[in-house]
Amino acid sequence: MEETKPISISRLIAIPALITLGVTILRLVGELQHWSPLFFSTQAGGRLALVGISWLPIIFGPYFAMKLANAGDGPTSMGKAIGFAALSLVVLAAGGTLFGLTISHPSFLTLLAAVVMLGAAFVPGIGWRAFGKTLVAYAFAARIPVLIVMYFAMRGNGGAGWGTHYDAVAPALAHLSLTRKFIYLGVLPQMTIWIGWTAFVGSLTGSIFAAIAGRGKHMAPASS
């Protein structure tokens, strides 16, 4: 029987990360040029604008899952992989709820919420180790460029911002210094909730897709 070689995570996420970066740049240009708000909303949070990277795990999750499955680097149980992917949503929702309740008046609880949301990103790896690691790596590769854009967007025009969703601030936080705005509106969300979201969405869609495709029987138990 032909042996399969482990897939390099950095090579696996390289092209998806570049595509994601391209979407981030496209969105920034679209907002600066005031293109259709349906696709390029400049309001705080982005208002579910169609051009964005939060949807991409729906595509790349199955892509990563199938690549790993075909390489024999899968879980002992597809049901277990799906179960822990779903559990990550519970953790993410708990942290997100606490974050939403405390962000108007940031405190220790806000930081605790951020840690919980980041922890959600590592839950899927309990059910499918290789897939979990891949999704966490991709999540950081996707979100670090956004964080960099947010930093310059918030500093732009003498601190007034570029007028994009990357620097939009809710009225309740408008009084914060530039540094605190960047920490609470940039670093914490991008490095916690969006990391958790990416891992959850990617793991759930990827695990379900792999299960439907009937790849579970070909997966190597040692990678669980």
Can you put this structure into words, describing what you see?
The structure is a single chain. This protein has one domain (9-223). The protein is built from seven helices and no strands. Helices cover 63% and strands 0% of the residues. It starts with 8 loop residues before the first helix and ends in a 12-residue tail after the last helix. By secondary structure, the protein is an all-alpha fold. Mean pLDDT is 89; it is low at 220-224. It has helices at residues 9-32, 57-70, 78-102, 108-120, 124-127, 129-155, 178-212.
Q: What are the segments in which pLDDT stays under 50 over at least 5 consecutive residues?
A: 220-224
DSSP strand tally: 0
Mean pLDDT: 89
Shape: globular
Q: Biggest β-sheet, characterized?
A: none
- Calculate the terminal CA-CA distance, rounded to whole Å: 21 Å
Number of helices: 7
Per DSSP, what share of the residues sits in E-state strands of 2 or more residues?
under 5%
| Helix-strand sequence | HHHHHHH
State the secondary-structure class: mainly alpha
Residue share in helices?
55-70%
The tally of domains stands at 1
Rg estimate, integer Å: 19 Å
